[in-house]
Amino acid sequence: MQTQVGIIGGGPSGLCLARLLSLAGVRSVILERHDRAHVEARIRAGVLEQGMIELMRKAQVGARMDREGLLHDGIVLTFDDRVERIDLPGHTGGQRVMVYGQTELTRDLYDAVLQDANVSVVFEAQGVRPLGFLDGEPRLDYVSDGKPQTLACDFIAGCDGYHGASRAAVPRGLITEYERVYPFGWLGLLADTPPVHEELIYSNHSRGFALCSMRSHTRSRYYVQVGQGEKVEDWSDERFWDEIRRRLPERFARNMVTGPSIEKSIAPLRSFVAEPLRFGKLFLVGDAGHIVPPTGAKGLNLAASDMHYLSTALIALYREGRGDLLERYSQTALRRIWAAVRFSWWFTSLTHKFNDDAIERKIQLAEFDYLTGSAAGRTTIAENYVGLPFDASFG
Ligand code: FAD
Ligand code: DHB
Known about the structure:
The chain is an alpha+beta fold and about 400 residues long. It is about 35% helix and about 30% strand. It contains twelve helices and 19 strands. It has helices at about 10-25, 35-40, 50-60, 65-70, 90, 100-115, 235-245, 250-255, 300-320, 325-350, 360-375, 375-385; strands spanning about 1-10, 30, 45-50, 70, 75-80, 80-85, 95-100, 120, 125-130, 140-145, 145-160, 175-190, 200-205, 210-215, 220-225, 260-275, 280, 280-285, 290. Helix 1 (about 10-25) packs parallel to helix 6 (about 100-115). The two termini are about 30 Å apart. The structure holds flavin-adenine dinucleotide and 3,4-dihydroxybenzoic acid (DHB). Flavin-adenine dinucleotide (FAD) binds near residues 8, 31 and 45. 3,4-dihydroxybenzoic acid binds near residues 200, 213, 221 and 295.
């Protein structure tokens, strides 16, 4: 088999990249390790920034998102019983965020990609190996239906997440990895219950962080910070509901509608960046190249700028024979990535319990007071939360 761009991974990054390329006439093949149902069932991102929203529209898959997504004008920050709302448009010249689940977005992308003559998807592709990308002859070896296959291509896009094969194939001497693993995780619960509040609540409580989010007016997504080594099996629904209510101010806790969970899982928290993001004809995109703790809702929104820069650069090459943008991909993408790594790390440190040290908590409270009491502090939170702009000079 032969194609122009060989894409490893059929998550949001791989799908959206394939779709943007296709609309410009560039062909691709996506090799996805799992089946479609498995990829769509992963409950992850819930909050989209303007950049990701616009990319979905550009990929001509934004119609359902625009109909069903919930636009949010603010977030609520709490510290024990203190409650402060951050007005997003008021501090950012009118910008808002949208609640639309990654499961829905992935479904919309698959619906389009599987009808698209310029894109082929191989599900359950096993043992994918990127080869020849440093020698100018990139190819992907893999096994499908028990048979070894080779996909020859002009470029490889590694969109296969943190545990994928693309970054792992880069010789160690060519890559630098920066990593911090946080000493806690998030236990998430999804339930068909009305959200406790119409906006998201990020709560710093002496028992640990909690987040109240949603997928719709009838479906809630909640998270509580849990210690490293905690197991989902040890968290009955009842224990989860008791814990999250204890971590919220009384006025929210008393409104909490509980119900049976549809899904429950624990996600570790990590900051990670690989540098550079280009190795000859292999490019890393999305979680394959960087991870942020979920606190600022940035992971997928960061993948969006990678997809935008890489699709723009590849299209410039195929259409106009211009290679300069491909040369600039890594450096341009990394600038926005580090800005989001900084914000996600900082927002995590403002809202989570790191230890039992009383002075740390007093300092967190002083920072909460400073930020919420100052227009500059509120603007800092709001402009980072709605997302920093893509580099407009790239194109
Ligand atoms: P992935 O979604 O990881 O997709 C990679 C794909 O590659 C998968 O389908 C996988 O099966 C496939 N794959 C892996 N290895 C191979 C291989 N060897 N061969 C073939 N295929 C392979 N982000 C936000 O922007 N907003 C949020 O509100 C938000 N909330 C989050 C909440 C939680 C609890 C978590 C865990 C994450 C959250 N994120 C959020 C982050 C977001 O979900 C990720 O950044 C996003 O999924 C990245 O997409 P991706 O396509 O790059 O990688
Ligand atoms: C969700 C996840 C996040 O990490 C976040 O900051 C906000 C919302 C969610 O899953 O809904």
